[in-house]
Structures are given as structure tokens and as C-alpha cells.
From TrEMBL:
Protein name (record): Polyadenylate-binding protein-interacting protein 7-like isoform X4
The Smr domain, residue ranges: 83-167
Organism: Carex littledalei
Record PANTHER family: ATAXIN-2 C-TERMINAL REGION FAMILY PROTEIN, EXPRESSED, POLYADENYLATE-BINDING PROTEIN-INTERACTING PROTEIN 7
Signal peptide boundaries: none
Domain of life: Eukaryota
InterPro entries associated with the record: DUF1771, PAM2-like_domain, Smr_dom, Smr_dom_sf
Length: 167
């Protein structure tokens, strides 16, 4: 509700209260006709207040829906990108993966749907590990183990690329 609307509502409420107080005074003085007229005037101000409040509620609702739509668009844009863990050590990758998956799960709950996430872990040949190509890659194994331990089902769509469905 903007400042002008609040000011308008405050003024209408003051006018209504004045009318109703004057109506009460007129009634106590025995002037029933004036009392009835001022009461009707107070009720008219009350209807105007209700109308202004309804307009303000509608405007606030539209604004919230607009913000929610923008937020969902932002969330959707951020959910469509893959989680890139290439080049990270296993411990660093697990930390990044934990952070990203927590955010994604929270955002998916807010929009109420499921989503397939792509996780890039690298080529998977182990060339950068100690011992060269003879050593199995640690990153993909650590990531797959983390996903399994935390209840995520993953599939390897191609070497170095994991796909995870999040609900």
C-alpha cells in the first residue's frame, strides 16, 4: 500500500469517526433526524474505506504475483545450468555439490516440480591424479558416492557427465 493510499484511508477514517461521534451527540441531545443523517454519512465513509482497502489488497496481490513470477523465472534460469565440478579436488567438489544441491532442492520445493540436474565431473580418465592414467579418477567416484549416500539416484549420460533427478 503506498503512502497516498494510507493517507486517504486515514482521512476517511477520521471523517467517519467525526460523523459517528456527532451522530452520537445528536442522539443524546434528542435530535434523531440529525443523528440518523450523520450515521448514514459515517456508514458512507465506511463503505469508501472498505473499497479503498480492497483496491489496496488487489494492488498488493498483483505486486506479489509479479515478484513471485520474476523470482520463479530467476529460479528457473539458475536451475537449468549444470553444476560444473571439473578441475576441483574431491573435497572441494563435495562442498560445492552440497551447497548447490541444497539451493536447488529449496528452489524446486518453492516452484513445486521436479528437475533433472546435470553434473560435470570431467573426462573421467584420471590423467591429473597421482600416478597418471593408471590411477582411477577420484572426483567422479567421490561425487557418485556422495549422491548415493544422500539418496540421489544418478546416471552417467556420457563420460564425465552425471544426471540427477531432484524432487
Amino acid at each position: 500500500m503506498n503512502l497516498e493510499s494510507k493517507e486517504e484511508l486515514r482521512n476517511l477514517a477520521l471523517l467517519r469517526n467525526v460523523c459517528l461521534e456527532q451522530a452520537r451527540q445528536a442522539y443524546l441531545a434528542g435530535n434523531d433526524a440529525l443523528s440518523k443523517e450523520l450515521t448514514l454519512k459515517g456508514q458512507l465513509y465506511n463503505m469508501q474505506i472498505k473499497s479503498a482497502q480492497d483496491k489496496a489488497k488487489e494492488a498488493a496481490s498483483q505486486y506479489r504475483n509479479l515478484l513471485l513470477g520474476e523470482a520463479q523465472g530467476f529460479v528457473q534460469e539458475n536451475l537449468d545450468r549444470p553444476i560444473d565440478l571439473r578441475g576441483l579436488h574431491a573435497s572441494e567438489a563435495i562442498h560445492v555439490l552440497n551447497y548447490e544441491l541444497s539451493n536447488i532442492k529449496r528452489n524446486i520445493r518453492s516452484i513445486g516440480r521436479r528437475l533433472e540436474i546435470t553434473i560435470l565431473v570431467g573426462p573421467g580418465v584420471g590423467n591429473l591424479t597421482r600416478g597418471g592414467a593408471r590411477t582411477p579418477p577420484r572426483l567422479s567416484g567421490a561425487v557418485e558416492q556422495y549422491l548415493f549416500e544422500h539418496g540421489f539416484r544418478c546416471t552417467q549420460t556420457q563420460p564425465g557427465v552425471l544426471s540427477v533427478m531432484i524432487y
